[in-house]
Amino acid sequence: MPVTKAHKSATRVRENPDIPLVKAAFAASFRIAMENNGVSAEQYFRKFHLPTSELTDPDALIPEKPFWRLINQVAIAEMIPDFGMQVAQAIPWYKTETLQPLLHGKQPLETVLEKFCDAAGSQSNTSAFKLRVEGDLCWFEHHSEILVKNDIQMENYRLTNMIELVQLAAGRNWKPVFMRMRMDDNKVIRKNRLLEGCAPEFSQERTAIAMPVGLLNANVSIQPAGASGRDNPVDEIGKKSEFIAALNTVISQYILEKDLSIDTIAELAGCSTRTLQRRLKQYQISYTNLLNEARMQYACSNLTFTATKITDIAQQLGYNDTAHFTRAFKRWTGMTPSQYRKANH
Fold first, then answer.
1. pTM for the model
2. What is the pLDDT of residues 127-144, one digit of tens each?
3. Residue ranges of the alpha helices (H) in the chain?
4. At the topology level of CATH, where does 227-343 sit?
5. Cys-Cys link to 319, which of 49, 233, 241, 314 (CB 3.0-4.6 A)?
């Protein structure tokens, strides 16, 4: 799979290293994260000479470096050690108003990440990302210059967004096989819940996360703005996320049941089978895919955090033939169960 080149956008915001610029759409996630913590966004925006009113044009260009200073200052002054993570989760990159139209559609994760790498330079003139395949792993790397010293919270922000892009295909519980950071080892980054259980390498040349090559083939569906026909498509995406998250919770609780049919899940979810099938069709998601994702998450968790034999995990998930389970697991993750366990220990 030849994913070895850096992807550069043909329409970057402006090539001027003395004036780092970013599109105004990205300011919204900083504002929301501060307001969620009871912090005055207007006060901090004014302190760092950023526009204090919400900009009506998301494509407007505003200075980027102040955001790097702001994110660290808020984390320290307001004692919010995971503030970078919170900013990223307020509005993930794939939901950002100027990026979503460039990423939307139903396509393999590889295509989504390639599109993101291509589009990054059109959102900020300091951004550069690429994919690089190395054996059974694909590295998702950030190659941009560092704008301020002690870039802890902005790197936290980048890592969270990079992981969430991969989670679109791998599921919300997915974590990187390997991870590299530019920052020195510190306690702050360990406050990021997405990194629990990971063993990052610090003081590296670039920020990067690794995923099994097989994940690149997993399908991702990002709804385009306005596609739902409703007044607020972002709310519709949120409703989808809530529905699928709730359904995943139900399935994961009963994943070891021998006959986990869609009829059983519909009953547990408090709706008819027909209603559940209609909702899944509406969101272009199959019950089989949800079931396999729950199986994958259960298997990955046990392979990482327990010493349970692979044959026992296979039997628990209803596979009488371990070879059948191994083939299914490799299809899900691009690795065999033993390879996955070795990579995560």
1. 0.63
2. 899 999 999 999 999 988
3. 27-36, 41-47, 65-77, 83-90, 100-103, 109-123, 152-170, 233-253, 262-269, 273-282, 287-305, 310-316, 322-333, 337-343
4. Arc Repressor Mutant, subunit A (1.10.10)
5. 314
